[in-house]
């Protein structure tokens, strides 16, 4: 269980390579003590040049991690929204945010997080959560569009933990925390593996 090893993990130092408030909250909730170092990666790759949305997300996560040079444990992630193999980025304006809501209305889309963790070990993980959106009337679509805080800087044009975003979903299949920004159960397993490798290396040094 990760909680039993948090002291050792935190003592080594943890870097969260993300400016995401949601990811920071989840790391705090897990009991991690971390510093935030935002990656300098521009995230300007064209998703259409990749074979799948998953490959695109993993490319972004790898690049974010590659920008950080440290002996500490580094956590990097990238979350994307996909419907019909199309990637929905952060909307540029109100009109685009509203069109995204129309596209999602009454349908099930995927929220995909690519997670990369580097310490003594290196781990990659893809987590997919499926979200089914209610049939949205135009009044709801307009309400979201008229509230920039609901869609601005959010992939897919929504945030499930905001006032309007939390009301539009009919069903969630998969890890809920993934929607906030990190699949913390999977991250816990990766960190536990990393810590066990650290203990193994320390034992060899002490022999």
UniProtKB/TrEMBL annotation:
Pfam families from the xrefs? Answer: Maf
Q: Which organism is it from?
A: Stentor coeruleus
Alphabetically sorted, this entry's keywords are: Hydrolase
Report which superkingdom the organism of origin falls in.
Answer: Eukaryota
Q: Spell out the protein name for this chain.
A: Maf-like protein
| Cofactor(s) of this protein | a divalent metal cation
One GO MF term on file is:
nucleoside triphosphate diphosphatase activity
Asked if the record carries the keyword DNA damage, the reply is: no
Q: Could you tell me which InterPro entries the record lists for this protein?
A: ITPase-like_fam, Maf-like
What PANTHER family is this protein classified in? Answer: BIFUNCTIONAL DTTP/UTP PYROPHOSPHATASE/METHYLTRANSFERASE PROTEIN-RELATED, BIFUNCTIONAL DTTP_UTP PYROPHOSPHATASE_METHYLTRANSFERASE PROTEIN-RELATED
Task: List where this protein forms a coiled coil.
Answer: none
């Amino acid at each position: 269980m990760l909680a039993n090893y948090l002291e050792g993990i935190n003592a080594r130092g943890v870097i969260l390579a993300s400016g995401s408030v949601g990811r920071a909250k989840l790391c705090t909730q897990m009991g991690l003590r971390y510093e935030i170092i935002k990656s300098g990666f521009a995230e300007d790759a064209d998703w259409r040049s990749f074979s799948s949305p998953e490959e695109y997300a993993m490319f972004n996560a790898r690049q974010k991690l590659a920008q950080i040079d440290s002996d500490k444990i580094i956590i990097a992630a990238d979350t994307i929204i996909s419907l019909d193999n199309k990637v929905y980025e952060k909307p540029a304006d109100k009109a685009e945010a509203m069109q995204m809501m129309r596209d999602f209305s009454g349908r099930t889309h995927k929220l995909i997080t690519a997670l990369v963790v580097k310490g003594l070990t290196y781990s990659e993980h893809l987590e997919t959560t499926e979200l089914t959106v209610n049939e949205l009337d135009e009044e709801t679509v307009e309400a979201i569009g008229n509230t920039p805080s609901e869609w601005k800087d959010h992939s897919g044009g929504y945030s499930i933990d905001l006032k309007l975003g939390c009301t539009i979903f009919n069903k969630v299949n998969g890890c809920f925390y993934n929607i906030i920004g990190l699949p913390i159960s999977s991250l816990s397993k990766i960190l536990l593996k990393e810590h066990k490798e650290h203990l193994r290396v320390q034992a060899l040094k002490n022999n």
